[in-house]
Amino acid sequence: MKSTEEKFNKKLPFKVPEGYFDNLPQRVQERIAATETQQEQKDRWVTLKSQLAFAAGFAFMALLSYLGYYMARPLMADKKAVKTDYVEIVSRTIYEFDDIDLYKAIEQKKKTDSLKEVYNEIPHRLYVRSSNCITIIDEKKEIKP
Amino acid sequence: MFRNPETKHYAFNLLVRKYQERLYWQVRKIVISHDDADDVIQNTFLKVWGGLENFREDSQLFTWLYRIATNEALTFLKKKRTKLLLPIVDVEQQLARTLEGDPFIDGDSTALKLQKALLKLPEKQRLVFNMKYFEEMKYEEISEILGTSVGALKASFHHAVKKIEKFLEED
Q1: 3-state DSSP helix/strand/coil percent for chain B, to nearest 5?
Q2: C-alpha to C-alpha distance for A88 and A75, rounded to whole angstroms
């Protein structure tokens, strides 16, 4: 029985251009150099693109913050003013205030309150003086000319 | 040498010079045309250059190179098929026509007949036959390159031989 080698022709029918294998390493090196240059340009562009994207994002955020700040400013200013006033009042009074002041303030208030009560109790009437007697005319609004 | 940037180019040049012919013939047997083989072999070396830093020394350099070259050649045929919207059989017919028309094909009738018969085989059987018969590679090496078990490779080679004999008898 014939072996596989004997059955078929082992010779390949292919050939290559003259000097092909002498030039191939050089051509491969040139191709690698060209690819690396392309890759470097691509990498540089990718880096630049990401930096630009970052800068644009940063600028956008800054713009948003700026707009947000100026839109909310009047509100914030009022709140701040109230807060400052309150703090100011407290800080101003806290040192001036003592027990005597407190008593005086209570006394004063009591007087004012009692006067108010008396005033409320007296009906609003007009007193007309004529010779020896005083005629009380009722409510002011009922006086007729 | 490959990991040192100063010697990398020099080492790569030595590698190309050492393996270019064996890899070229492996590719040429798959794609048939010299121009296509030239494209594929350049792409193969570009891939090798890009992957040198990741090359694991526990696998043999030659096996690694062979695997890249074979995959590149098969990918090339697959792209050709997709590009021309051709079924597998038509691509093989196109390759057979190249055998007759390519200026870099020798007119030896028996060698040409064998190549035409090989183009009628399924892709895997053609690959196994080329590597075993022409390259005289061991089944273990082929197994490492193609990722197929030795038993399956032996069966493929056996079927290939039988089919080729039949094709040649019919011709």
Answers
A1: 80, 0, 20
A2: 20
Judge: B107–A21 Cβ closer than 8 Å, yes or no: no
Closest CA of chain A from B51, distance in Å: 13
Q: Could you tell me which residue, B142 or A9, shows the higher pLDDT?
A: B142
Q: How many Å lie between the alpha carbon of A40 and the closest alpha carbon of chain B? A: 14
Mean pLDDT per 10-residue segment, chain A (145 residues): 62 89 93 85 85 91 89 63 62 66 76 64 54 54 52
pLDDT at B48: 93
Residue of A nearest to B164 (CA): A8
Q: What are phi and psi of B3, to 5 degrees?
A: -85, -15
* Model pTM score: 0.64
**Which one of A2, A3, A7, A8 makes the best mutation probe of the B interface by having the most chain B beta carbons within 10 Å?**
A8
- Say how far apart CA B153 and CA B126 lie, in whole Å: 11
Q: Please indicate if any CB of chain B lies within 8 Å of the CB of A1.
A: no
Cβ burial of B52 (10 Å; 0-12, 13-18, 19+) is: middle
Mean pLDDT in residue range B139-156: 93
User: Who among B104, B110, B168 is closest to A17 (CB)?
Assistant: B104
